[in-house]
Amino acid sequence: MDPRINIIEKRLEKVRRLIAVSSGKGGVGKSLVASVLALTLLDKGFEVGLFDADFTSPSTHRILGVRRLEIREEKGIVPMHVHGLKYMSIVAFSGEETLPLRGADISNILIELFSTTLWGSLDYLIIDMPPGISDATLDIIRLVRRSEFLVVSTPSMLALETVEKLLRLLKELKVPVVGVLENMKMGQSFTIKDRINEMGVSFLGELPFDLKVEEALGDVDALAKTAFARKLAEIVPQIISPHV
Ligand SMILES: Nc1ncnc2c1ncn2[C@@H]1O[C@H](COP(=O)(O)OP(=O)(O)OP(=O)(O)O)[C@@H](O)[C@H]1O
Ligand SMILES: [Mg+2]
After folding, report:
1. Which of 19, 50, 138, 207 is deepest in the core (most CB within 10 A)?
2. 103 pocket-lining for ligand 1 (C-beta < 6 Å)
3. What does the pLDDT look like over 16-28, one tens digit per residue?
4. Entry pTM
């Protein structure tokens, strides 16, 4: 077995809760939810870390408007400080270069970053997951044993079906699920609420499709003022209530 795996638990021992923002589908708003959730928790006075676990198409640095990412080493890698968040992204190593990674490479980077990043004490470590039910999903479950999943869907049958698959997998593997968020809601369209509740999973609420989000990307103050962020802030107490 890879000896680095044993170190991961020790590295994360002072992190109270680890929340992986995930979905069965791509492009549903995982990175936006993860970034705004991290900022909202910070605003509530918690110590928060954000780990961008999407190594092939990372986005959180753009959402947060991070210009320069520099890592510092000190018997491990010190996470960057971004708007008060402890932050880690592959972009600190790769810059704007494309990384064509195979599954085994992704696992290796996950193990390396989790075993070397010095998160220290945190109330929440938010993990922005790559799209779909991939190797990375299985790796996070295997490597970060205390992780809980916050699942994002949209009001579309296509997203719902993949989210149901992910929820079944998580149930089978006995991974705690915080609940499901329905993002990009427009009007009184089809809702996934009933199907999620039927699965015995907590439906956390709806987040509006908000045209203001696009122009606010990269500006955390503008993002906080969007209807999307305000609604997410209302839902946060449910996300962090210790029901799992
Ligand atoms: N509620 C919303 N209102 C308006 N735009 C949104 C909303 N949610 C997400 N978006 C936009 O949709 C796009 C996809 O969002 P995001 O990158 O967060 O999705 P993702 O699930 O992380 O994608 P990927 O699967 O590629 O990682 C982004 O341009 C984002 O700004
Ligand atoms: Mg993303």
Report:
1. 50
2. no
3. 999 999 999 999 9
4. 0.97
Mutate to test the pocket of ligand 1, among 21, 23, 25, 31 (most ligand atoms within 8 A of CB): 31
Task: Tell me what pLDDT residue 223 has.
Answer: 98
DSSP per-residue string spanning the chain: --THHHHHHHHTTTEEEEEEEE-SSSSSSHHHHHHHHHHHHHHTT--EEEEE--SSS--HHHHHT------EESSSEEPEEETTEEEEETHHHHTT------HHHHHHHHHHHHHHB---SEEEEEEEPPSSS-HHHHHHHHH-TTEEEEEEE-SSHHHHHHHHHHHHHHHHTT--EEEEEEEEE-TT---SHHHHHHTT--EEEEEE--THHHHHTT-HHHHHTSHHHHHHHHHHHHHHSS--
Q: By alpha-carbon position, which residue is closest to atom 28 of ligand 1?
A: 29
Does the Cβ of 213 fall within 6 Å of ligand 1? yes
The pLDDT value recorded for residue 125 is 98
